[in-house]
Amino acid sequence: MLPLLANTLWLCVAVLAIAVPAGTATAWIGCTFDWRGRRLAFLALAGLLALPLYLQAAAWDAAIGRQGWLGPVLGMGGAPLFDGWTAAIAYHAIAAWPWVALIVGLGLRAVEPELVDVALLDGPPWKAAVTVLLPRVRGSLWVAAAWIVAQVAGEMTVTDMFRIRTFAEVLYSDFALDPDPARAALRLAPGVGLVALTVLGMLGLAAPWQAGPRQQIRHPAPPRRWPGSRRFTASASGLIAIAFLVPIGSLVWKLGGVATSIGGGWVRRWSFLHAAEVLGRTPWEFRVEFAWTFAIGGLTALAVLLTVPALVWRLRDSPRRLALVFAAGAFIAALPGPSFAIMVAALRLNPQLPGWIAEPLDLLAERSLAFVVFVLAIRAAPLCGAVAWQAWRTLPREWLDAAALDGLGPWRQLVFVAIPLRRRTLAAIGLLAWCLAAGDLTSTVLLAPARVSTVAVRTFQLIHAGVDDRLAGLCLVSLAVFGILAAGFHLLTRKDRLWE
Fold it and tell me: Is the terminal CB of the chain with fewer CB neighbours within 10 Å at N or C?
């Protein structure tokens, strides 16, 4: 177990060392400086938040991995530019960077504008960042670090690609090889619990530095144009452009790449007709995978919408209960992805269960999506609950007081006041739950019936052989779907002004 713990912690530390400075610098530049194309750049960065790790890994693998185009350009032939530990760290850091920028950016918006103005009068912007901004976003930095550790330690997509043994990867592989899933889970339980407690400890360190009341967030210091800021804004724009355009461009190149025999040799070229043909047939070729993905995502979104907002509403006036619920949510988010799937599978396969319980469970597992939807809803609950809490917290208090004076109880206030006022946010929570469920790999591959194959599972199966035109088409169509849903989430929450 010690080697697994060392590998998991080393991967987390390496990703933190890259993603936290890059994300913090990006958030600082976006909140401090104003430049042409700023909104477009950060919309592109926000779009990366909605992309599952398997899609980002496939897109970057098309550029720097096996059969990637960058290796031949640099004279490395067919060898990947990054492989093994280097590739795993790079892929995770690229995926974590936008999350750090978002979390730290929200923390920067809570800093008192007058303090920023005074600091900017006393010195250059970088000095204001060190003396004023960084001390006041310590909580956001700890939250971002905890989120990264939870995601990196709980994800097995990239580590399985490069055969790196971490807790999540071993949980997945042991489940496939060990006939007794409970034994595999119990063997790794101490290490998994230690990682989860580490995440909870980091969140505990963030508590004393949390942002103050809502009125501090309403009027953030506006971005401005400062002499000498062009090098900062150019760096941020360049990094965002690389992170957004290079993987998509690599998939487009793979989509239309054809090999032609000329003079006894093979010459690769790009064909628009071939790209259009592959892209046109992709939805039909993978129609079964898309259908199952939409079904699982839709059922998970429905389950989340029916439970999570009501639970947060019920606990919103009880700080202690709400704190316990959020601690439980943080612990759920900190557990590796396969953990819940293995626990559910171990419960179903327990030989000590009486037949009148075991037979219905087997029927549900083999002929329905009940188990996978149940686990995915639990996995999506913490993040969706955080959005619901922000939605209820920002309701106009005078409306709720007026409803209480009219005799409406808490649940009638929810039905007649809160839900109509936050219907767009509830729709956004549904989109978020759908994206999280559709982007999940481990729970789906472990718990879904044998006949079920989603886009995530199919992509995971194809990516081990390298990115070809079929996989590029599948990834581009999936990117379009997730991009549309991300834009919908942004527009819905923006109209309700949750983050201002």
Answer: C
| Domain total in the chain | 1
Asked if residue 437 is part of any domain, the answer here is: yes
DSSP assignment string, 136-154: HTHHHHHHHHHHHHHHHHH
For residue 486, give its domain range. Answer: 2-223+230-257+268-495
pLDDT, tens only, 232-261: 778 888 888 888 888 888 888 888 877 676
How many degrees, rounded to 5, is the angle at CA 385 between CA 384 and CA 391? 95
Contact 108, 24 (CB under 8 A): no
Q: Dihedral (C-alpha) 263, 268, 269, 272: value to the nearest 10 degrees?
A: 120
3-class SS shares of the chain: helix, strand, coil, % to 5:
75, 5, 20
Residues 378, 332 contacting (CB under 8 angstroms): yes
Q: Which of 297, 295, 292 is nearest to 434 (CA)?
A: 297
Burial class (CB in 10 A: 0-12, 13-18, 19+), 24: buried
Residue 262 domain-assigned (yes or no):
no
Q: What is the CATH number of the domain that holds 159?
A: 1.10.3720.10
Token representation of residue 211: 């942002």
